[in-house]
Design a protein that fits this description.
InterPro entries: NTF2-like_dom_sf, Rng_hydr_dOase-bsu. This is Aromatic-ring-hydroxylating dioxygenase subunit beta. One of its GO terms (biological process) is 3-phenylpropionate catabolic process. By secondary structure, this protein is an alpha+beta fold. It has one domain: Nuclear Transport Factor 2, Chain: A (Roll), CATH 3.10.450.50. A six-stranded mixed sheet has the order 2-1-6-5-4-3. It is globular, with a radius of gyration of 16 Å.
């Protein structure tokens, strides 16, 4: 299987696990050295031109913190997820290149739309982002090594960011 297709299949499987709330299975897709972050976007004047903070994050996680979140989400003590957020992820425009410096990794850039439904609300809250991933593609098992999700909104329309992006 070529790298493009392998990455697309990996990202589809990941989205399915998260949408189906199969957090233990999703956690198995993570490399123990995972860096998982979503920096804050700013709308004010930005001198570097990116509008992306290098010091403030919506999410800045590692393997241990994600493991703790997954355990809490699978328990009855996930108060921010009661009732649970129902999500539907659409991953598109996957672009794959070889990762600089490590031939076992590929760099995958993708667009993400997450439709979030809570309680009895009639309208979803929609979160969109561009993701920059480093994925170790293996025979049978692939692992997410790094994810940086750049959210499009400066103000998130969610009550809490308790989902994985």
């Amino acid at each position: 299987m070529d790298m493009q297709r392998a990455c697309e299949e990996f990202l589809k499987q990941e989205a399915e696990y998260l949408d189906d709330r199969l957090f233990a299975e999703w956690f198995e897709l993570l490399d123990p050295a995972i860096i998982y972050e979503a920096p804050v976007r700013t709308a004010r004047e930005n001198w570097d031109g990116t509008g992306i903070s290098t010091t403030a994050f919506y999410l800045k996680e590692d393997y241990a913190s994600i493991e703790m979140r997954v355990k809490r989400l699978r328990s009855r003590y996930a108060w921010s997820e009661s009732p649970a957020t129902r999500t539907r992820r659409i991953v598109s425009n996957v672009r794959v290149t070889l990762h600089d410096g490590d031939p076992s990794l590929v760099a995958a850039r993708s667009n993400l739309a997450v439709f979030c439904h809570r309680g009895d609300g009639a309208h979803p809250q929609i979160l969109t982002a561009e993701r920059f991933d480093a994925i170790r593609i293996g025979t049978g098992v692939s692992r997410l090594v790094k994810r940086t999700a750049i959210l499009d909104a400066t103000v998130l329309g969610l009550e809490s960011l308790s989902i994985f992006i």
